[in-house]
Amino acid sequence: MLKIGIVGLPNVGKSTLFKALTNVAVDIQNYPFTTIDPNVGVVRVPDERVDALALMSNSKKKIYTTIEFIDIAGLVKGAAQGEGLGNKFLANIREVDAIAHVVRVFEDKNITHVHNKIDPINDIEIIQTELELADLQTKESRAKKKDHRDLPELDLLADKKVIFVLNCSESQLANNWTPSFVKTSEGKPDDNLLKAIAGRDYVVLSTPLELILSESTQDEKKEYLTTFGIKESGLDKLIKQSYKTLDLLTFLTTGEDETRAWTAHIGDPIPRAARAIHTDFEKLFIRAEVINWKMLLESGSWVEARSKGLLKTVGRDYIIQEGDVVEIKI
Question: How many whole angstroms separate alpha carbon 229 and alpha carbon 224?
């Protein structure tokens, strides 16, 4: 399962984001350190293709892909040396596939900032420095061990892919806030935040609004989105961005028993992608029938698609594509 670690300084909106993502009751307080063990939640990835194909196939079950989000407790400057909650939490980051780094850009006098000022660039640098310091300690520890050259390659924290979650206020969101809106103390445009995240993936959202949306009905959610002039929730954007950042895609299977979404890496040949369905499929794979999900829906059924000659029979060299519906032959 895909794992995303949510990190950031205290009081930037991490736990609110986690609660909105998972609708799990976590401790949200105006204190720097509210947890010792990371909160873990599994989030269903919304996918209209699963719904549509399940309806077409009259499937008994619908199974979506999932992402495991880990709310890693607030880091502070010096965490790698044991400050705050210490480097125990940096160790938790090693378990994840990517990092969602929540950065505070909103002003709120009722929510204290650990450094008593809103400075997203400094916040980014602090977390990045702590990750690099933790890596340095890991390298030094490795170098002291005998036969360290024969040990597995290090999984360095600073090398993990990062998605910056720029947490703004609801009013900023309503005004289509972007990183280019940041101003200097003299009120002039400040492009330092853009430089700090240059070449990195990011999403802009407001965690208070996301929490409201996560607790709303579908009709209420649509009304809120219309009010704020946005097409989709920040959570949906984060989930989609997670797939893009990690070069992942979704393929599907459908039938009377179930319609299901599966995750593969972009560029995977179909036998490797089929491991997600069953580990034996990669070795035993002979061929597969493949069709794009939209084409299958337009056909009305797998049988109709076959009769129209729309199903492709592919071998081991076929590269799985986003939205493929497959039937594996072994």
Answer: 9
Neighbouring C-alpha atoms within 13 Å toward the C-beta of 54: 16
Dihedral, 290, 295, 296, 302 alpha carbons, nearest 10: -70
Tell me the CA distances in angstroms from 244 to 117, 204, 214, one per residue in order: 33, 16, 23
CATH at residue 290:
3.10.20.30
Structural domain boundaries enclosing 209:
3-46+64-246
Q: What angle do CA 121, 158, 211 make, to 5 degrees?
A: 60
User: What amino acid occupies position 235?
Assistant: L
Contacts of residue 73, Cβ cutoff 8 Å, sequence gap at least 6: 33, 34, 35, 36, 38, 85, 89
CA atoms within 13 A on the CB side of 135: 15
Q: Are both 125 and 239 inside the same structural domain?
A: yes
CA distance 156 to 127: 14
Averages of pLDDT over runs of 10 residues in the chain (330 residues) are 88 88 57 52 89 97 90 63 56 85 85 74 86 78 62 68 92 82 61 79 92 90 88 90 94 96 96 93 92 97 95 96 94
CATH of the domain at 152: 3.40.50.300
